[in-house]
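Agenda item 2: adenosine-5'-diphosphate complex prediction
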Amino acid sequence: DVLVDARDAARTYGRGPTAVVAVHGATFQVRAGDRTAVVGPSGSGKSTLLHLLAGLERPSGGRVSWPGLDTPSAESAPIHQIGVVFQGPSLIPALDVVENTALPLVLAGVPEGQAQRRAQASLHDLGIAGLARRLPEELSGGQAQRVAIARVLTQSPRLVLADEPSGHLDRATADHVIDVLISAVDMLGAALVVTTHDHAVARRLAIRREMHEGRLIAPHGTQGPQS
Ligand code: ADP
Ligand code: ADP
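Presented output:
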């Protein structure tokens, strides 16, 4: 049950002599239930790969498809079935925690009251119900990331893509945020892909793929990407 299928997917920024190949032909599949880390140093192309998998960016070569998800058309990504935890601040400063968490549902047309009840339930599941009426500026970095995860949980996606979700956090907070993310994904029965530069984070996920200078490296002791 392949949810996302990237075949030789490449992404180049700019053109001519200053062009940067952020991702060379990456072949990468995510199946239902997978818990995958994409690990590599800063600038190795992890964010770009994640954006390709999310359909937020189009490949400049190869293709990305979503055979196991409902797409409106072959060309468009199944945005509503993919939850993205972005790197860095992603909460709306003027909205409190419940409003931020409910936002994807409100934007999808769910009535405000119902959306807020589901958001409250997600906050409760993540152990942060007490933060409901705080504004983002009143949260620590780890709290803000847990709210970003609650927002994804509220959306009930089948695939969760998290871009360096623990990147700016200290060790203990980072470990906690990753645990919260994994338990949220378990609750959803969703697949998970996490990008990280941190091998300690990567070790918490069952499948690990290394990235180096825009190339995915086949993991040791396992089969390389099938083609
Ligand atoms: P990582 O997530 O591993 O840090 P990125 O995917 O962010 O790597 O970046 C890979 C390469 O692509 C880097 O050289 C980066 O500078 C470049 N890059 C990323 N996004 C853009 C962009 N929007 N425009 C130009 N270059 C970019
Ligand atoms: P701390 O070190 O106190 O845990 P950080 O230095 O990581 O906090 O965060 C600084 C500020 O950035 C905080 O006010 C926090 O609320 C905000 N912030 C961090 N991550 C996010 C996010 N994902 N969305 C919105 N705001 C965030």
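Discussion summary: The pocket of adenosine-5'-diphosphate (ligand 2) is lined by residues 89-91, 136-137, 139-142, 144-145, 148, 168 (CB under 6 Å).
Owner for follow-up: CH.
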